[in-house]
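Re: folding output
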Amino acid sequence: DTSRQTKNLNKLLIRILLHLQVEFSTIMYRQLISNSWKACLLFVCVFFSGITVKADDSLYSPNKKIGVSWDNPAKGLRVIYKKGDVPISVVQLENIGLQLQRASGDEFNYVSSSAVTSIREDYTMITGKRRHCTNEGTQQVFHFKNAQNVSLDLELRVYDDGIAFRYVFPRLTKEMCVTDETTAFAFQKGITRWTQKLNQAYEDFYLKNKGRVQGYAAAQWGFPALFEVAGSVFTLISEANVAKGNCGSWLNNAANESTYKVEMAEPTKASGRWCSPWRVAIIGSLADVLESTLVTDVSEPCRLSDVSWIKPGVVSWIYWAYNHGSRDYQIIKKYIDFAADFHLPYMLIDAEWDEMGNGGNVEDALAYAKQKKVAPLLWYNSSTAWCAFGPLYRLNKPETRQKEFAWLESMGVKGIKVDFFSQDSISTMNYFVDILEDAAKYHLMVNFHGAPIPRGWQRTYPHMMSVEGVYGAEWYNNKETLTDSAAWHNCTLPFTRNVVGPMDYTPCTFTDSQHPHITSNGHELALLVAFESALQHLADRPEGYHAQPAEVRSFISSLPTVWDDTKLLNGYPSSYVVLARKSGDCWYIAGLNGTNEKKSLAVDLSFIQGPVKEITLYADGEERNQFDIQMLSGLKKAIHEVDCLPRGGFVMKVQMKN
């Protein structure tokens, strides 16, 4: 009886699927019920012939778009992204494990894995891409042991926008030395990538390449690194939550142009319960990458009980136009006056303030700032690397650091900028945390300059307002290189460096420093929105801002530096970007043209919910140093085209009705 055979085969198939714990959709099941027994038999044969892993050897994101599968976790993990109904291979994680300092018995063998658990957490950020963040994913833990009976866990999380994993020694009975991490990210050959040559300050270009850069044999790349794994599918690799006692790391593809091994800065001692930093791969569209908060999602929650004193804002900054200006009391007064005139909350007194003269010293400058109702910030040398400028050696020891911080608080100083750090060593990471913890005791905000990239500390220590770690506008002081490269470089940073945390680029220069800039004034103004930094330092001299139209001056005076939300509207690395940030009842939309040709950038306003009161467009004028300012309150269509000059840009401010 054909009907009876069909029913029996269906029952048998269902029992097999349940036994393998394979998720089987209702649509497919109904299709099997309606088919003949021959079709069912054919499906069973194909199904079994295609099995390479058991069904429980996979872990999926909550929305099922990202999956990680494995045959043996010790040998590798496969990461798949589902674009529509098409599964795309993103990356293969190879050589899972750590290297210990032993003659033999290092190899960790897979033992077992935990049950799958769900992660759900809501948290609030003071700074960053959005205030309210949701940390939602699935987690599984893999247990390993080596011949010395040392247990090692691999914690794997899969989110809707990527994956994260780290290594954990649950309980070490004696101290171990982790000499290396063997993990490698293996990509398909020939894909496009944007990677930055490793250097101490993380200050270089994110070069568009296929895996090799001519003349760079070291093949060491700093985090983050961006890969276009398929058409319109990207992954960005970085790390997060570097705790005290851990070093930072980077990527090395010297052995194979498409395989990027994690390379630790130095051996690390592990004892008790020890955790490595999280390795993070943000996966999806460019919007998924740019808007992701995965770096802070996996970082430790805020450790401060009181955050009411943390006040982000715009800062007037003296260094760009006057390299040694902080030695001159009269120039300092000029920048304090500029901050007061533009209603900026802060003014940064930069390097060499301990040598200030020409009518006053630093105490006089602090008093003048107080008189003008401008809060001062002060620069310090970390005194761990290049020690050319003072003040020196005031922060290195706990007792001198806390004495200095107490003095700053008593003088009304609201924050510090600490400069010239060594690379990703353990001592540098410990120093960052020590400064942050002590600064919080004296209500001082912190900006790290000449420093490696942020790694999620902006969540744990929300008074960490910004980090340089970027080839920024100060390079107009140093070389002519930025002049011709700034436009495409600025269109790469939102998809790379600024994804992982605040970026002190020191943007928006209308005049020239030692080397000229050839980006338009519209491009420069747009950088204030395109680049996220809780302390946004205005790099130009006061005359450069005073010379702008009244509408531009008003825009700068009212500029927010914290955002309720961030959205990518359009763009492609090195070419152009259009992104939107929300503050209260306003959307600020920045557009950057990274090409040397005129370009029309589309702004799709359909994402905005609710009635619009007015729209102000600050666009390029006919000449590079001119603005074309328009009121678009009568705009009816959702998509608006904005014409940009070569290396041009614009800002659109959308005011919502209350």
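--- second protein (sequence, then structure) ---
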Amino acid sequence: MATIAETIHKPQTLRPSNLEDHGAACAAFNWGQARRALDASLEAKTGFNMATLAVDRHARSPNAAKLALRWLGKSGARRDLSYAELSHLSSRFAHVLQNLHVNSGEHVFLLCGRLPELFVALLGALKQQCVVTPLFSAFGPEPIATRLTLGHGRVLVTTTTLYRRKVQALREHLPELQHVLLITDDDGPLPPDTQDLRVLLDAASPTYQTRPTDAQTPALLHFTSGTTGKPKGAVHVHEAIVAHIATARMALDLQDDDVYWCTADPGWVTGTSYGVLAPLALGVTMIVDEADFDAERWYTILEQQRVSVWYTAPTAVRMMMRSGSAAPRLHDFPCLRFIASVGEPLNPKAVRWGLEAFGLPIHDNWWQTETGGIMIANYRSMDIKPGSMGKPLPGITAAIVERREDGSARVITEPDTEGELALLRGWPSMFRAYLGEDERYRKCFAGPWYLTGDRARRDADGYYWFVGRNDDMIKSSGHLIGPFEVESALMEHPAVLEAGVIGKPDPLLGELVKAFVVLRPGAKASEDVQRDLLGFARLRLGAAVAPKELELVDTLPKTRSGKIVRRLLRARELGLPEGDTSTLEAA
């Protein structure tokens, strides 16, 4: 298999990183010690509550007046919240739930964009020991109703507009939904059987004594779509914040004086783990932008808000790449020191583009909804092999394994050998269940190993390389071909913006490789371009791996977290059922 030999050496800097020596950190790290360090920081006997660790302990410290969150409204408004203010507001929301007789263990759903009230409600619900589920505000009515039903949602926090458009007509089919708390965004009267959240907050007390919380108490419910069938509800517990904090320190290099911007939507697990909990728990200042993606707006935010650490997604990087590296050079980013990306593998071209545009490489990392936090990363202190996921974090043991028929897993020790990526169970943010699906949960494990469903390989230097999902792999003439490898090669062509690759049944080959390509603006679709791309891929990959068919398309189906949905490309190509499409960008 071809490997990418290029290495980008770590940038020289006077500021030390949080993880200077990866090997030494792996040898010394212990999750028990990490948890005990947090226990020692709690002054009140609140147990191990995420919200207390994220905001209340800072509100009782010299950091009380420190800026926790700067919200940038899409119409130009701005709102600043200190750690003390965020603590008081979230305590008010905990009282709101208490006054509504919403008890610990009951499920609170959040359906809104990046608004201050989302942070307030999420933290307040955690204080009340409720289980919180943020939803994408772009969801349609059916996906919202499906998740509220599966998750036994009792409380929904949303905006007036979203409620009228997406929930109100289905309310009668949601008997467990008892309380709808609205963030009013128009001047009209409230819809029937709803309450004004701001009125409730104003009437509630700003002080709240969080009850002792066991670390294993359920805290978050994140839905993730399977290949087919209904969404899976991954359950995470309060102890997960131990991993959020440790991984944000090591993989994102977050430090006390950072201004941090995570662009992830709160309806995606990244937007919760690293867009709310980790940065607040570390006491940094967060930037929160309400508006949808706009490249010029993003460059302006990075510049004017003096962002130092930026966590974004490959889709956004590719969209910024459309205008080349000249646009960012019209801005000055004196504080920006670290850029990371997650959501799908970051192509080598995008890693290099970061150097052209910002003078910094973009550091890819890997994790899943089920892992709850970053598991494998390219670190600030480590050289990057573009296209690689990086190395496992301290406290995480990864391996390449082969599933056996008896349900066990054989660890593959030979380097550059493909297999399934597995993680040794036991890290704090590991999901504890699929809600109501015990058998489905058990099938995710083989002895002590969590089986990720991702195929990967580990090179001789210990770097991991993503190959594809188990169900994305293409078997052609006896060869196992990873779609990502083919997509990465196609994206090296100057006319290509995005590429998605599937296996298509073929009577001779078993499967042939078919590519769907989105061209860059200005490149015109033609048969000559198709032939050029097929020849380019054949030259780069060889006849056995290169696409046999290539179709030029306007867009590719993607989730809102930026992942290309290859199984949907395959379903459409073959006329098969599309399955759950609720997490798609255009759903």
